[in-house]
Amino acid sequence: MKPMRCVFALTLLSASLMVAAQEINFGIISTDSASVQRERWEPLFRDMEKRTGLTVKAFYAPDYAGVVEAMRFNKVQVAWYGNKAAIDAVDRSNGEVFAQILRSDGSLGYNSLLITQKDSPYNNLNDVLKNSKSINFGIGDPGSTSGFLVPSYYVFAMNKVDPRTAFKTIRNASHGANIQAVLAKQVDVATNNTEETDKLEQTKPELAKELKIIWKSPLIPNDPIVWRKDLDPAVKAKVKSFLIGYGKTDADKEVMSKIYNYSGFKESTNDQLIPIRQLELYKDRVKVENDAQYSAEEKTRLLADIDKKLAALTK
Fold first, then answer.
1. What is the pTM of this model?
2. Percent of the chain, pLDDT > 90?
3. If we measure between CA atoms, which residue out of 280, 314, 259 comes closest to residue 142?
4. Would you call 26 helix, strand, or coil by DSSP?
5. CA–CA distance, 310 with 218 (Å, rounded to integer)
Protein backbone atom coordinates (compact mmCIF):
# COMPACT_ATOMS: atom_id res chain seq x y z
CA MET A 1 0.00 0.00 0.00
CA LYS A 2 1.31 3.45 -0.90
CA PRO A 3 2.32 5.76 1.98
CA MET A 4 -0.56 8.23 1.43
CA ARG A 5 -3.10 5.40 1.37
CA CYS A 6 -1.64 4.01 4.60
CA VAL A 7 -1.97 7.39 6.31
CA PHE A 8 -5.55 7.73 5.06
CA ALA A 9 -6.49 4.23 6.25
CA LEU A 10 -4.95 4.80 9.67
CA THR A 11 -6.79 8.13 9.94
CA LEU A 12 -10.10 6.43 9.18
CA LEU A 13 -9.37 3.66 11.70
CA SER A 14 -8.44 6.20 14.36
CA ALA A 15 -11.61 8.17 13.70
CA SER A 16 -13.80 5.07 13.91
CA LEU A 17 -12.21 4.05 17.21
CA MET A 18 -12.84 7.54 18.60
CA VAL A 19 -16.49 7.32 17.59
CA ALA A 20 -16.82 3.85 19.16
CA ALA A 21 -15.17 5.09 22.36
CA GLN A 22 -17.88 7.77 22.63
CA GLU A 23 -20.64 5.15 22.80
CA ILE A 24 -21.59 3.17 25.90
CA ASN A 25 -24.08 0.43 26.59
CA PHE A 26 -25.74 0.90 29.99
CA GLY A 27 -27.13 -2.28 31.58
CA ILE A 28 -30.30 -2.36 33.69
CA ILE A 29 -31.11 -5.41 35.81
CA SER A 30 -34.53 -7.01 35.49
CA THR A 31 -36.31 -5.97 38.68
CA ASP A 32 -39.34 -5.57 36.43
CA SER A 33 -40.26 -6.10 32.78
CA ALA A 34 -38.09 -4.50 30.10
CA SER A 35 -40.94 -2.21 29.05
CA VAL A 36 -41.37 -0.87 32.59
CA GLN A 37 -37.62 -0.43 33.06
CA ARG A 38 -37.34 1.35 29.73
CA GLU A 39 -40.02 3.82 30.79
CA ARG A 40 -38.17 4.48 34.05
CA TRP A 41 -34.60 4.81 32.79
CA GLU A 42 -34.70 6.20 29.24
CA PRO A 43 -35.24 9.86 30.32
CA LEU A 44 -32.04 9.66 32.37
CA PHE A 45 -30.10 8.24 29.41
CA ARG A 46 -31.37 10.98 27.09
CA ASP A 47 -30.18 13.61 29.60
CA MET A 48 -26.82 11.82 29.80
CA GLU A 49 -26.45 12.02 26.03
CA LYS A 50 -27.28 15.74 25.94
CA ARG A 51 -24.87 16.68 28.73
CA THR A 52 -21.93 14.39 27.94
CA GLY A 53 -21.99 14.08 24.15
CA LEU A 54 -21.92 10.29 24.55
CA THR A 55 -24.24 7.93 22.73
CA VAL A 56 -25.97 5.89 25.44
CA LYS A 57 -27.67 2.62 24.51
CA ALA A 58 -29.67 0.78 27.14
CA PHE A 59 -29.36 -2.97 27.66
CA TYR A 60 -32.33 -4.70 29.28
CA ALA A 61 -31.71 -8.39 30.00
CA PRO A 62 -34.41 -10.87 31.07
CA ASP A 63 -32.45 -11.73 34.23
CA TYR A 64 -29.66 -10.37 36.43
CA ALA A 65 -27.05 -12.77 35.06
CA GLY A 66 -27.65 -11.43 31.55
CA VAL A 67 -26.30 -7.99 32.51
CA VAL A 68 -23.32 -9.51 34.36
CA GLU A 69 -22.44 -11.66 31.33
CA ALA A 70 -22.92 -8.75 28.95
CA MET A 71 -20.40 -6.73 30.99
CA ARG A 72 -18.04 -9.71 31.05
CA PHE A 73 -17.92 -9.76 27.24
CA ASN A 74 -17.84 -5.94 27.00
CA LYS A 75 -21.33 -5.74 25.51
CA VAL A 76 -22.16 -3.51 28.50
CA GLN A 77 -19.69 -0.96 29.88
CA VAL A 78 -21.76 0.61 32.69
CA ALA A 79 -24.61 -0.94 34.67
CA TRP A 80 -27.03 -0.50 37.54
CA TYR A 81 -26.94 -3.58 39.77
CA GLY A 82 -28.15 -4.76 43.11
CA ASN A 83 -25.27 -5.43 45.51
CA LYS A 84 -25.26 -9.22 44.99
CA ALA A 85 -25.15 -8.93 41.20
CA ALA A 86 -22.47 -6.25 41.54
CA ILE A 87 -20.26 -8.76 43.37
CA ASP A 88 -20.54 -11.07 40.35
CA ALA A 89 -19.72 -8.18 38.02
CA VAL A 90 -16.66 -7.19 40.07
CA ASP A 91 -15.41 -10.78 40.46
CA ARG A 92 -16.16 -12.09 36.97
CA SER A 93 -16.74 -9.19 34.59
CA ASN A 94 -13.87 -6.74 35.21
CA GLY A 95 -16.30 -4.46 37.01
CA GLU A 96 -15.69 -1.70 39.54
CA VAL A 97 -18.17 0.18 41.73
CA PHE A 98 -17.85 3.94 41.24
CA ALA A 99 -21.22 5.36 42.32
CA GLN A 100 -24.20 4.59 44.52
CA ILE A 101 -27.87 5.52 44.37
CA LEU A 102 -29.18 8.31 46.60
CA ARG A 103 -32.77 8.23 47.82
CA SER A 104 -35.05 11.22 48.04
CA ASP A 105 -35.77 10.54 51.73
CA GLY A 106 -32.05 10.50 52.55
CA SER A 107 -32.07 6.87 53.64
CA LEU A 108 -28.89 4.85 53.27
CA GLY A 109 -30.58 1.73 52.01
CA TYR A 110 -33.74 -0.28 51.54
CA ASN A 111 -35.28 -3.47 52.94
CA SER A 112 -36.15 -6.93 51.72
CA LEU A 113 -39.75 -7.93 52.40
CA LEU A 114 -42.14 -10.83 52.53
CA ILE A 115 -45.51 -9.80 51.14
CA THR A 116 -48.91 -11.49 50.94
CA GLN A 117 -52.51 -10.51 50.18
CA LYS A 118 -54.19 -8.20 52.69
CA ASP A 119 -56.75 -10.91 53.57
CA SER A 120 -54.14 -13.67 53.89
CA PRO A 121 -54.11 -15.74 57.10
CA TYR A 122 -50.32 -15.23 57.32
CA ASN A 123 -49.35 -12.24 59.46
CA ASN A 124 -45.67 -12.81 60.27
CA LEU A 125 -42.64 -14.93 59.44
CA ASN A 126 -43.54 -17.55 62.05
CA ASP A 127 -46.90 -18.10 60.33
CA VAL A 128 -45.11 -18.69 57.02
CA LEU A 129 -42.61 -21.16 58.46
CA LYS A 130 -45.28 -23.10 60.39
CA ASN A 131 -47.54 -23.43 57.34
CA SER A 132 -44.93 -23.69 54.60
CA LYS A 133 -46.20 -27.00 53.19
CA SER A 134 -49.48 -25.34 52.18
CA ILE A 135 -47.85 -22.18 50.77
CA ASN A 136 -47.04 -21.40 47.14
CA PHE A 137 -43.97 -19.20 47.51
CA GLY A 138 -42.46 -16.64 45.15
CA ILE A 139 -38.75 -15.91 45.52
CA GLY A 140 -36.59 -13.50 43.52
CA ASP A 141 -34.04 -13.90 40.75
CA PRO A 142 -30.96 -15.79 42.09
CA GLY A 143 -28.92 -12.66 41.36
CA SER A 144 -31.18 -10.42 43.43
CA THR A 145 -29.96 -9.08 46.77
CA SER A 146 -33.36 -8.30 48.30
CA GLY A 147 -35.37 -10.92 46.44
CA PHE A 148 -33.04 -13.87 47.00
CA LEU A 149 -29.84 -13.41 49.03
CA VAL A 150 -31.20 -11.51 52.03
CA PRO A 151 -34.26 -13.74 52.57
CA SER A 152 -32.12 -16.81 51.90
CA TYR A 153 -30.04 -15.88 54.93
CA TYR A 154 -32.41 -14.15 57.36
CA VAL A 155 -35.58 -16.10 56.56
CA PHE A 156 -34.23 -19.54 55.68
CA ALA A 157 -30.61 -20.11 56.77
CA MET A 158 -31.14 -18.52 60.19
CA ASN A 159 -34.18 -20.74 60.74
CA LYS A 160 -32.54 -23.88 59.33
CA VAL A 161 -35.09 -24.13 56.52
CA ASP A 162 -34.40 -25.37 52.99
CA PRO A 163 -36.76 -23.32 50.78
CA ARG A 164 -36.44 -25.84 47.95
CA THR A 165 -38.33 -28.45 49.98
CA ALA A 166 -40.17 -26.40 52.58
CA PHE A 167 -43.03 -25.09 50.42
CA LYS A 168 -45.87 -26.58 48.44
CA THR A 169 -44.35 -24.89 45.38
CA ILE A 170 -41.59 -22.30 44.88
CA ARG A 171 -40.83 -20.20 41.81
CA ASN A 172 -38.31 -17.51 40.84
CA ALA A 173 -39.50 -14.23 39.34
CA SER A 174 -38.73 -10.51 39.24
CA HIS A 175 -39.98 -8.15 41.94
CA GLY A 176 -42.68 -6.80 39.65
CA ALA A 177 -43.83 -10.28 38.62
CA ASN A 178 -43.95 -11.40 42.26
CA ILE A 179 -46.17 -8.46 43.19
CA GLN A 180 -48.52 -9.31 40.34
CA ALA A 181 -48.54 -12.99 41.36
CA VAL A 182 -49.46 -12.10 44.95
CA LEU A 183 -52.21 -9.73 43.82
CA ALA A 184 -53.59 -12.41 41.49
CA LYS A 185 -53.31 -15.02 44.27
CA GLN A 186 -51.06 -17.18 42.08
CA VAL A 187 -48.63 -17.33 45.01
CA ASP A 188 -49.47 -16.97 48.68
CA VAL A 189 -46.30 -15.26 49.88
CA ALA A 190 -43.39 -13.69 47.96
CA THR A 191 -40.16 -11.82 48.50
CA ASN A 192 -39.96 -8.19 47.48
CA ASN A 193 -38.45 -4.91 48.67
CA THR A 194 -39.38 -1.45 49.88
CA GLU A 195 -38.33 0.14 46.57
CA GLU A 196 -41.07 -1.72 44.73
CA THR A 197 -43.77 -1.35 47.37
CA ASP A 198 -43.04 2.37 47.81
CA LYS A 199 -43.25 2.80 44.03
CA LEU A 200 -46.56 0.94 43.95
CA GLU A 201 -47.96 3.18 46.68
CA GLN A 202 -47.06 6.23 44.59
CA THR A 203 -48.32 4.99 41.23
CA LYS A 204 -51.13 2.56 42.08
CA PRO A 205 -52.16 3.11 45.71
CA GLU A 206 -55.32 1.07 45.25
CA LEU A 207 -53.17 -2.01 44.46
CA ALA A 208 -50.71 -1.28 47.26
CA LYS A 209 -53.62 -1.46 49.71
CA GLU A 210 -54.22 -5.05 48.60
CA LEU A 211 -50.80 -6.11 49.91
CA LYS A 212 -49.67 -6.91 53.43
CA ILE A 213 -46.02 -6.79 54.56
CA ILE A 214 -45.33 -9.60 57.03
CA TRP A 215 -41.53 -9.44 57.37
CA LYS A 216 -38.87 -6.76 56.85
CA SER A 217 -35.10 -7.30 56.74
CA PRO A 218 -32.28 -5.22 58.20
CA LEU A 219 -31.16 -2.35 55.96
CA ILE A 220 -29.52 -3.23 52.62
CA PRO A 221 -27.00 -0.69 51.22
CA ASN A 222 -28.28 1.39 48.30
CA ASP A 223 -27.63 -0.04 44.85
CA PRO A 224 -24.25 0.51 43.16
CA ILE A 225 -23.40 1.69 39.65
CA VAL A 226 -20.55 -0.32 38.11
CA TRP A 227 -18.32 0.25 35.10
CA ARG A 228 -15.74 -1.91 33.41
CA LYS A 229 -12.30 -1.06 34.74
CA ASP A 230 -10.89 -0.85 31.20
CA LEU A 231 -13.43 1.74 30.01
CA ASP A 232 -11.76 4.74 28.35
CA PRO A 233 -10.74 7.15 31.18
CA ALA A 234 -12.18 10.11 29.26
CA VAL A 235 -15.54 8.34 29.01
CA LYS A 236 -15.35 7.38 32.69
CA ALA A 237 -14.83 11.02 33.60
CA LYS A 238 -17.88 12.09 31.59
CA VAL A 239 -20.13 9.38 33.01
CA LYS A 240 -19.06 9.95 36.61
CA SER A 241 -19.30 13.74 36.37
CA PHE A 242 -22.79 13.49 34.91
CA LEU A 243 -24.14 11.03 37.49
CA ILE A 244 -22.61 12.68 40.57
CA GLY A 245 -23.87 16.07 39.39
CA TYR A 246 -27.34 14.85 38.43
CA GLY A 247 -30.49 15.46 40.45
CA LYS A 248 -29.94 19.12 41.35
CA THR A 249 -32.66 20.72 39.18
CA ASP A 250 -36.41 20.20 39.41
CA ALA A 251 -36.38 18.49 36.01
CA ASP A 252 -33.63 16.11 37.14
CA LYS A 253 -35.49 15.35 40.36
CA GLU A 254 -38.62 14.47 38.42
CA VAL A 255 -36.66 12.04 36.23
CA MET A 256 -35.06 10.38 39.26
CA SER A 257 -38.34 10.13 41.18
CA LYS A 258 -39.86 8.13 38.34
CA ILE A 259 -37.15 5.47 38.54
CA TYR A 260 -37.52 4.41 42.19
CA ASN A 261 -38.00 7.64 44.07
CA TYR A 262 -34.25 8.19 43.79
CA SER A 263 -32.74 11.66 44.07
CA GLY A 264 -29.30 11.23 42.51
CA PHE A 265 -25.95 9.52 42.93
CA LYS A 266 -22.88 9.73 45.13
CA GLU A 267 -19.35 8.38 44.76
CA SER A 268 -18.69 4.86 45.99
CA THR A 269 -16.19 2.00 45.76
CA ASN A 270 -16.09 -1.79 45.90
CA ASP A 271 -16.01 -1.48 49.70
CA GLN A 272 -19.78 -1.01 49.73
CA LEU A 273 -20.06 -4.68 48.73
CA ILE A 274 -18.29 -5.96 51.87
CA PRO A 275 -21.48 -6.35 53.99
CA ILE A 276 -23.10 -8.35 51.18
CA ARG A 277 -20.01 -10.54 50.79
CA GLN A 278 -20.17 -11.19 54.53
CA LEU A 279 -23.84 -12.08 54.22
CA GLU A 280 -23.07 -14.59 51.46
CA LEU A 281 -20.38 -16.20 53.61
CA TYR A 282 -22.55 -16.26 56.74
CA LYS A 283 -25.27 -17.99 54.70
CA ASP A 284 -22.72 -20.56 53.48
CA ARG A 285 -21.47 -21.08 57.04
CA VAL A 286 -24.95 -21.78 58.40
CA LYS A 287 -25.61 -24.19 55.54
CA VAL A 288 -22.39 -26.14 56.22
CA GLU A 289 -23.06 -26.25 59.97
CA ASN A 290 -26.49 -27.77 59.40
CA ASP A 291 -25.61 -30.17 56.58
CA ALA A 292 -25.40 -33.78 57.76
CA GLN A 293 -23.70 -34.98 54.57
CA TYR A 294 -20.32 -33.69 55.73
CA SER A 295 -18.07 -35.63 58.06
CA ALA A 296 -16.78 -33.85 61.16
CA GLU A 297 -13.40 -33.44 59.46
CA GLU A 298 -14.91 -32.04 56.25
CA LYS A 299 -17.14 -29.68 58.20
CA THR A 300 -14.21 -28.37 60.24
CA ARG A 301 -12.20 -27.76 57.06
CA LEU A 302 -15.05 -25.99 55.24
CA LEU A 303 -15.92 -23.81 58.22
CA ALA A 304 -12.27 -22.83 58.68
CA ASP A 305 -12.11 -21.79 55.01
CA ILE A 306 -15.24 -19.65 55.36
CA ASP A 307 -13.95 -18.07 58.58
CA LYS A 308 -10.69 -17.23 56.83
CA LYS A 309 -12.58 -15.44 54.06
CA LEU A 310 -14.68 -13.58 56.61
CA ALA A 311 -11.58 -12.49 58.52
CA ALA A 312 -10.02 -11.18 55.31
CA LEU A 313 -13.03 -8.92 54.74
CA THR A 314 -12.62 -7.22 58.12
CA LYS A 315 -8.98 -6.25 57.61
1. 0.80
2. 83
3. 280
4. strand
5. 20
